[in-house]
Amino acid sequence: MRLFVSDGAPGNLPVLAAACRAGARDKLLISTVGPEECVVPFLTRPKLPALKLDSGHYLFSSSAICRYFFLLSGWEQDDLTNQWLEWETTELQPVLSVALYNLVVRGKKGEDVLSPVRKALIHIDHSLSRRSCPFLAGDSESLADIVLWGALYPLLQDPTYLPDELAALQTWFRTLSVQEPCQQAAESVLKKQGALALRVYLQKQPQPSVPLERPVSNEPEEDELSAHTLSEEEIAMAVTAWEQGLDALPPVRPRQDPVLPVAGERNVFITSALPYVNNVPHLGNIIGCVLSADVFARYSRLRQWNTLYLSGTDEYGTATETKAMDEGLTPQQICDKYHAIHASIYRWFNISFDFFGRTTTPLQTTITQDIFQRLLSRGFLLKDTVEQLRCERCSRFLADRFVEGICPFCGYEEARGDQCDKCGKLINAIELKKPQCKICRESPVVKSSQHLFLDLPKLENRLEEWLSRTLAGSDWTPNARFITRSWLRDGLKPRCITRDLKWGTPVPLEGFQDKVFYVWFDATIGYMSITANYTDQWERWWKNPEQVELYQFMAKDNVPFHSVVFPCSALGAEDNYTLVSHLIATEYLNYEDGKFSKSRGVGVFGDMAQNTGIPSDIWRFYLLYVRPENQDSSFSWSDLMLKNNSELLNNLGNFVNRAGMFVCKFFGGCVPKMTLTPDDQRLLAHVTLELRLYHQLLEKVRIRDALRCFLTISRHGNQYIQVNEPWKRIKGNEADRLRAGTVTGVAVNMAALLSIMIQPYMPTVSTTIQTQLQLPPAACAVLPTDFPCLLPAGHQIGIVSPLFQKLENDQIESLRKRFGGGQLEDSLELKAKVSKAEDPTELANPEQIKLLTDAVTKQGNVVRELKAQKADKAQVAAEVAKLLELKQQLALAEGKPPEPSKGKKKK
Amino acid sequence: MAAAEDLTLLEKLLGLRRGNKYSAQGERQIPVLQTNNGPSLTGSATIVAHLVKQANKEHLLGNTAEEKALVQQWLEYKVTQIDGHSNKDDIRSILKDLNSYLEDKVYFAGNNFTVADVLLYYGLHRFIVDLTFQEKEKYINMSRWFSHIQHYPGIRQHLSSVVFIKNRLYTNTH
């Protein structure tokens, strides 16, 4: 038989290893052909490797070829091997080819390579560890192992892509890699070049398309609904917990001021990345740190853990100086202005900081300089000279963005000091021809300047030791682990910690008086100084690693500063600092299909969210629903509308409202007597199960997944009401009326439980429900692990009203237009047209727009109400005309052509 | 859930008494079979082999090493190339390849009828019913095979019988 191969075809690996392992190697005649040669006569597309049998038949599937070799050696087929081989072709190959293509052809690294295959790797790892067997389909290595090993080898031979947490996979892979047949195959195919040996072949292949994966969403998966079967014990326990009622609740801990760690308690210290002060945060910034941390902080308080949540604005650095120059203010004024903007945005989003501080405080200087002195005296700082441009007239060194000149590559005249806008090449500022100071237009001179460096290589061992202690069993997110590991793998280099700037923490050292600390050195120290501004006993949080559990929230770009750089400073300073226990990093949130961009006006920014008329809880809910937990996700207007209308309005809101309404309407606002049937008991057990899952997930800070639990409970609730029809039974005989009472009582208790569970996500809605139900304060502040009867028979509830409003298509469309995104080009063009018009209606100021928007909303409600009341047609028409008129005014004020009213008429 | 329907048809053909229940997993609705003894099985090709063994008709999986490997290769082909594909161009190129393959063969694994023929018949049926006579004539070898298989006892079940014309109508196409 003849085996056709092409150099660098990934399929060669398993095929050669299998041939060797099954003793078929000697019977093979190997021909090497070009990657595009059609060896198999009946296939239109080239397929390699391929095996031509003596009978004239062809095997063109790598796994069928491997299987054939094993069959020849007398091996018998079995279900488990079949299953692995099928999984390999249908599940692993599609994602693996994307990963390899990204790595080899597109030259990508890190997450771009790992994230497509992560799920598949985890699947193998789990199967191995679950069976507690070293091989995939038996006690010794066999066909399944060879085929999967061969597929994965080009990727996993680089340990970067073999994550430590997949210990079982690691062991399996290493065991196989040292086997003779595998070693031989690896050498002959990869020729010691690693995955790059596949390059020439893969370049000739069509680019693999990412397998259809649903966009990140939180819809329940089908399997999950196929109910977990409840055991008798689970049901009995749920009933016992229910009967204990309010007595079972742990006492509420009074909130101290200031919050300080308490010995013997769980002391949860939460920080969110310090937002940089020079800009207004967008939705992606908000979900990435402050909002995610807020959910966890609120949850932590509901668990009665001793919780402190802090953040603040990061204010020093060049960017602030530039912004100050742009706006004609001093850096301090800029910081004051933007700090207030940040604080007000977070207040609107209901972020429950115990303290929101800032980095430009005297304590920041004290603490930074102290850490600096400690590092200096312990020999962890180096001095070195750096060549930089200096403007003599302004008497300062120029940061890259303060220099302009002629691009040394393309001759473009207005190239910036860091990059040329024309050719896009990166430039080292001192290479610019005819450089000019951007401020005074003087030509700067090259001067050398002394700087201080943090000697990271010298601290590497301590860091490794700390990480290995910390990471095991902690809740660091996978991306945080990955980024940290890849920094360590590339080796740490000394990092410059000083800058020739004015706006920063001064360096307290002879010869460095006119320098300040570089922001990344002192920004992370900001967490300490902000704590110190909150309480003079700040060291009880920051020098107390035994008692304090530190959770730090951030987007993934901030990981290295929190996992490598800052820990090195703290370890080197040797003052028993509290270091991060759980580093929670998100991926990125995109806007519609692109990025948020302040300069292009694309996306929703914190301050604008307030002017959309959509309540902050709805924003919070949607952002948390699409939280980029494992991969990037997108904000989408239509999805926001859908989730509001389906999950909040129709599911959660509908259930809570109906439960309350029944109590008011049928039982005079008094919770009726409940006699539980087996069906009710099973429902309690289901709710308990979801509640427990909610706890498990939030303890691991899986915020997006936990959100699903309360939606599931309210779905159960809706179903329960639908099946039991209390509104019919209340009109029936004695037994029916009793049943109506029980169903109403259980439902309203579920609503009460939900009001506590949603508190971390939608605090305002939570309070509204609790007021409507008159839930006792003791119950509002504690989330139990089981489901007790919170509103016993006889409890009087308050006035019930709807919780959510429907979002209408028109409203969402106009918001989408207002915030750019997909239609950016259109709206820019339109704006240009409008402003060029002969008699331009002056674009109105924001207040006017707001007034008009409010008027439109109001008039819209009037029309809706009239329609709902089936009012006289002429009257409706008159109000509609008013509405259209208002809309037209609004559109003009916003500089948009009036909306065509076609859509309306169709209805 | 085309894949699971094909499995139910196969069960009937094999004369397995009790209809198995299949659940579907993930985006591609991969069938999962819960077996009485032991863990569940995932994936249609895997379940096919399992059912054939359960019915004691192992000859349908092929008799020699070569036949066995060919049967598995074509089951894999069905799962990866045919199931879940509905793009006209893809289907045309698949039919072209299969037609060319069947030029000198009676069955997919060579000279014996196997489960590969059965599953490819089930997988292709929904496309073949829509072909015009002209197309059927264009893929003449494939049509001959298909017509042959659909007349095997017990295979077709509720599926519609596809009409092929023995005499050539469009001689000029060749």
TrEMBL record, chain A:
GO molecular function per UniProt: ATP binding; methionine-tRNA ligase activity; tRNA binding
Keyword Transferase tagged: no
Parts forming coiled coils: none
Domain WHEP-TRS: 848-904
Top-level taxon: Eukaryota
The GST C-terminal domain, residue ranges: 74-212
Subcellular location: Cytoplasm, Cytosol; Nucleus, Nucleolus
Alphabetical keyword list: Aminoacyl-tRNA synthetase, ATP-binding, Cytoplasm, Ligase, Nucleotide-binding, Nucleus, Protein biosynthesis, RNA-binding, tRNA-binding
GO cellular component, one term: aminoacyl-tRNA synthetase multienzyme complex
Pfam families: Anticodon_3, GST_N_5, tRNA-synt_1g, WHEP-TRS
Function: Catalyzes the specific attachment of an amino acid to its cognate tRNA in a 2 step reaction: the amino acid (AA) is first activated by ATP to form AA-AMP and then transferred to the acceptor end of the tRNA. Plays a role in the synthesis of ribosomal RNA in the nucleolus.
Protein name: Methionine--tRNA ligase, cytoplasmic
Species of provenance: Vombatus ursinus (Common wombat)
Organism ancestry: Eukaryota, Metazoa, Chordata, Craniata, Vertebrata
TrEMBL record, chain B:
Origin species: Vombatus ursinus
Protein's name in the database: Eukaryotic translation elongation factor 1 epsilon-1
Primary role: Positive modulator of ATM response to DNA damage.
Quaternary structure, from the entry: Part of a multisubunit complex that groups tRNA ligases for Arg (RARS1), Asp (DARS1), Gln (QARS1), Ile (IARS1), Leu (LARS1), Lys (KARS1), Met (MARS1) the bifunctional ligase for Glu and Pro (EPRS1) and the auxiliary subunits AIMP1/p43, AIMP2/p38 and EEF1E1/p18. Can interact simultaneously with MARS1 and EPRS1. Forms a linear complex that contains MARS1, EEF1E1, EPRS1 and AIMP2 that is at the core of the multisubunit complex. Interacts with ATM and ATR.
Cellular component, GO, one term: cytosol
Keywords: Acetylation, Coiled coil, Cytoplasm, Nucleus, Protein biosynthesis
Localization of this protein: Cytoplasm; Nucleus
Gene designation: EEF1E1
Lineage top rank: taxon: Eukaryota
Major subcellular site: cytoplasm
Domain annotation GST C-terminal: ranges: 50-173
Gene Ontology terms describing biological process: cellular response to leukemia inhibitory factor; negative regulation of cell population proliferation; positive regulation of apoptotic signaling pathway; positive regulation of cellular senescence; positive regulation of DNA damage response, signal transduction by p53 class mediator; translation
Native organism taxonomy: Eukaryota, Metazoa, Chordata, Craniata, Vertebrata
InterPro entries documented for this protein: AIMP3/p18_C, Arc1-like_N, EEF1E1, Glutathione-S-Trfase_C-like, Glutathione-S-Trfase_C_sf
